[in-house]
Amino acid sequence: MKQIALNRLDELFAAISARQTLLIPQQLENGDAEFRPWSAEAKLYTGLKTSRSAKDAFFPQVENLVGFKVSEQGIELMDTRDEVQPFTLFGVRGCDARSFDILDRVFLAEPVDTFYADRRAAATVVTLACNRPETTCFCQSFGIDPSRPAGDVTCWMDAENLYWQPNTDKGRALTEALSLLEEGEEARAKRVEEDIQAVLKRLPLKDLSLDHVGAGKTKALFDRPEWAELSEACLGCGACTFVCPTCQCYDIEEFKSGGSVRRFRCWDSCMYSDFTLMSAGQPRPTQTERFRQRFMHKLVYYPDNQDGLFSCVGCGRCLVKCPIHMNIVKVINALKEGTA
Amino acid sequence: MQGVKQKALELLTGGKADRVLGWRRGETFYDPTPGVFASAEEVERDFVFDAFCGANLSKYLIALDRAEGVTAVFLKPCDSYSLVQLIKEHRIHREKVYIVGVACEGMCGYDALMKAGIEGVLSFEEEGDALKVHTLYGDTVIARKDALLSKCEHCKSKRIVTYDELLGEQGDEVADSGRFDEVARLEKMTPEDRFAFWQNELSRCIRCNACRNVCPACSCEKCVFDNPDSGIRNKAAADSFEENMFHIIRAFHVASRCTDCGECTRVCPQRIPLHLLNRKFIKDINELYGEYQAGADFDTRPALLNFQTGDCEPSIVHVRGGERA
Ligand code: SF4
Ligand code: SF4
Ligand code: SF4
Ligand code: SF4
Question: CA-CA distances (angstroms) from residue A70 to A54, A255, A258?
Fold first, then answer.
């Protein structure tokens, strides 16, 4: 284990950034936080979570796929792919770190999504233990340990130091390049970990029960009457899907101007009325079916396809951001009530 | 506010309404969800009304207008402006709703507690002008005025425009709400600075459409931005120009019908101050066509839907520099 004094964090960031691009959570003028490239003026956000999740680093909201130039000579293909350079993503929380595994199983399965794969390969992920988990956090229900988050490097912070534990080859390579890191005091990192564990035991959502959802539950849950009431006030906006670190759906659209076409992909939302629209009609005609899809996907279909793994990491973003305060916890609990 | 749940029970059992539109209790303190209650048992079990019931229920009445019978609804002063505007636009029939006006001291939001640095909130109690907040790290007290939703910070009116009965006292318009102060500040900026301000704000937009979907003035059955046949549908901004256009087009479309209910800003997950766009339009309308408040009455026509030969000429927009010519 290594460590560095908090008042030398800027030196650490400068050293990483001399090697490759560094993204850290930074506070915006309105108090929210976002992952942004480090610069000498940048300050590390000390709150818990970024508004948008860390998935943006691998799966951006909009991305060019290919371009076409149409002329009398024919159609010319243009490679619009951005070149991906190695980068470090610092300050990822345990929930977002798990979301990368969930996205990997989709994007890195055959046929591999090379856009996503290139970025994943280029990234070194440095995670940070959550000193003050919020009352909206329920990552522990999904077996995530926010006091010791997975990542190429795991970090802890107390009032004086940042403790730095490399876990993988990528993490060790980064660590070796950072000669300013000092020998770390494991006992102190351990104390941070224990303090976090104590808070986790007191979180209101710690006992969220998941036994009635999961792989194999399609028949039991699909036609449950609760869906109607749960979805009755849903606005059909995409807020919950766009802030979610595990939502992975996208659409492919084209931007046409004069003789050229740019084909891009952008996030899509199963909550939208045209999500499954096809020439034969709309198989999910009302918001109730769309709403059910979002939660069945996270709680049943994905686990069905991925050895029981849920595609929610309990980050709590949808709990805070939904305009009507509907969320996955309410869904899980409502479905439990009617279960024998 | 006491008595709201009691009233809901009374309306259902007394036969005044076939259903009640109100709020369902959440899992915790900040998260009630709008809900329709059809029976007294349901009200007993789930109904809640407290400082965190900020959502404006008016727009749900468009869909409920098609249901048989009468829907009773609880409306705060600002919500009542939205409902009246929707009735004027023939989206809701007045006789299909039984309106219970609820006096309001401003509604609270989770964001405001976070902004005040209160972490680990578990529950709260209303104690006069303050909220007593229980947290993982002990109890604390916050003044209600410091815990308000953004839309309540500059409340324009405590008057409930129309109602069948009232819980609490009827109020007045708030003359010194200060709701245009921030707009005036933006008007004083140089065009470059103002452009930079809006570009910075709008560049955070994730096009989730929450602002549009919650907006009572956005009641089109199919928005052009959702319609694959419109030629301008876009799920995400392909460039920053489009990002600006979405918001400016929306602001134009609701101009003079927007009641300044503030829901768009309340729901934005990226906390973009959309109300400043709408208030700019309202301020301009006030200056160019005379004071106009959408939803304040049943008879007047929205300024931009009411051409008069004496109306100011469009060029005035370019020459007046923010002041009435
Ligand atoms: S659940 Fe909430 S955030 Fe998601 S689509 Fe419905 S209203 Fe929007
Ligand atoms: S469903 Fe909600 S809590 Fe779960 S990962 Fe997505 S945003 Fe987070
Ligand atoms: S609610 Fe906010 S993020 Fe969503 S579309 Fe509106 S402005 Fe953009
Ligand atoms: S634009 Fe915003 S303030 Fe105006 S009516 Fe719509 S939601 Fe309310």
Answer: 37, 13, 9
- Position with higher pLDDT, A167 vs A277: A167
Query: Which residue carries 């989709």 as its tokens?
Result: A106
CA–CA separation, A336 vs A339, rounded Å?
A: 5
ipTM comes to 0.93
Q: What are phi and psi of A70, to 5 degrees?
A: -105, 125
Token couple for B127: 């104690």
Ligand 3 binding pocket includes B273 (Cβ within 6 Å): no
Q: What is the pLDDT of residues B136-154, one digit of tens each?
A: 999 999 999 999 999 999 9
Which pLDDT score is estimated for A340?
Answer: 47
The reported pLDDT for the residue numbered B241 is 67
Cis ω for the linkage preceding A37 (within 30 of 0): no
Mutate to test the pocket of ligand 1, among A272, A326, A328, A329 (most ligand atoms within 8 A of CB): A326
**Which residues contact residue A157 at a Cβ distance below 8 angstroms, ignoring those fewer than 6 apart?**
A6, A128, A129, A131, A163, A192
Interface contact B27, partner A, CB < 8 A: yes
Q: Answer whether A274 touches B (CB < 8 Å).
A: yes
pLDDT in tens, B55-103: 999 999 999 999 999 999 999 999 999 999 999 999 999 999 999 999 9
| Among candidate residues B51, B1, B53, B2, the one with its CA nearest the CA of residue B24 | B53
Distance CA A240, CA B310 (A): 48
Compute the C-alpha angle A142/A146/A150, nearest 5°.
85
Report d(CA A200, CA A206) in Å as an integer. Answer: 7
Tokens of B95: 């006789």
- Quick check: B107 pLDDT over 90? yes
Paired residues of A261 in beta bridges: A68, A256
User: Hey, what's the torsion of the CAs at B200, B204, B205, B211, to 10 degrees?
Assistant: -80
Write the residue with the smallest CA distance to atom 7 of ligand 2. Answer: A244
Measured distance CA(B83)–CA(B61) in Å, rounded:
8
CA distance B316 to chain A (A): 34
Best probe of the A interface among B21, B31, B43, B66, by most A CBs < 10 A, is: B31
Mean pLDDT score of chain B, rounded to an integer? 91
Q: B69 is written with which tokens?
A: 């019978």
The domain locations on chain B are 1-107+156-177, 110-147, 178-325
Q: Scanning the structure block, which residue is given the tokens 């999910």?
A: A284
Q: How many CB atoms lie within 10 A of CB B79?
A: 28
Pocket of ligand 4 contains residue B79 by CB under 6 Å: no
Position B237 scores a pLDDT of 67
Q: How confident is the model at residue A273 (pLDDT cuts 50, 70, 90)?
A: confident
Rounded to a whole number of angstroms, the distance from the CA of B118 to the nearest CA of chain A is 11
Angle at B76 between CA B70 and CA B81, to 5 degrees: 80
* Residues ≥6 apart with Cβ < 8 Å to B192: none
Q: What is the amino acid identity at position B282? A: I
Cβ neighbours of A90 (radius 10 Å): 25
Euclidean distance between CA atoms A221 and A25, whole angstroms = 38
